[in-house]
Specification:
Two copies of one chain form a homodimer. Chain A has about 130 residues and is α+β, with helices and mostly antiparallel strands. Chains A, B: It catalyses: (R)-methylmalonyl-CoA = (S)-methylmalonyl-CoA.
């Protein structure tokens, strides 16, 4: 069911420093910061030959990653995103298998403008999983 | 400098349950467990179309992931692995940029039989980074 790994998201306390590090020390192709006020984050995509790293930094007072950075002040790997062809079919299969979908259970529009869902990390080995329909 | 994302490693407390979940609920291609006593882990590779997920479970008394699972009993994303063409050149560039290499600073042979190094997570936004020469 799951397809490509769309991205790995890393929450960072200092977006400028993280961008400089990936660009200068790791020599990667770092994109421009994109404010996503609807999602409470500023994102920077780092293009690797086969997938992307998504740097996440809180934006606004109700950022969904503020709590993560309080618990992990240095930052940390926040989630992985797997691509699926049909997000509603994927959701129904996962719910049947006992997994919990975060929020209302209905897909939202993600940072790429595609429908996304998040699965409860307690159901996936402590790993927050995003599904994105492509 | 960094190339492909070789894998994302997820430490899991129950390897059999994690394999069943990725195979049955997420519908992924889950490999057979491989004991790696030299690394203190049992690994299972999950093949995605563009990269791999590496499930890690402690093996033996001195497993390098035992402490991680003590802090994160449900499991969690443990590290990301980026491919590099020349691991010594990569190391020297990173050390010049102020990053710390874990252990002796010399590459070891990783689970794929290739030279690997780990970078200090405090230097990379709380994210443990493995470099693998390919």
């Amino acid at each position: 069911m799951i397809g490509r790994l769309n991205h790995v998201a890393i929450a960072v306390p200092d977006l400028e420093a993280a961008c400089a590090q990936y660009r200068d020390a790791l020599g990667a192709a770092v994109g421009a910061p994109q404010a996503e006020p609807g999602h409470g984050v500023t994102v920077v995509f780092i293009a690797l030959p086969n997938t992307k790293i998504e740097l996440l930094h809180p934006l606004g007072p109700d950022s969904p990653i503020a709590g993560f950075l309080q618990k992990n002040p240095a930052g940390g790997i926040h989630h992985v995103c797997y691509e699926v062809e049909d997000i509603l079919a994927a959701r129904d299969r996962l719910v049947s298998a006992g997994a919990r979908v975060l929020g209302s259970g209905e897909p939202k529009t993600g940072a790429h403008g595609k429908p996304v869902l998040f699965l409860h990390p307690k159901d996936f080995n402590g790993c927050l999983v995003e599904l994105e329909e492509v």
